[in-house]
Amino acid sequence: MASNPAKELQEEFLNATKKSQEMLLEAIKTWVGTVQAVTPKVPMPGIKLPFADQLPKPEDVVSGGYDFAEQVLANQRKFAEEILEVTSPLLPGEHKGAK
Question: Given pLDDT bands bounded at 50, 70 and 90, which one contains residue 48?
Answer without folding.
Answer: confident
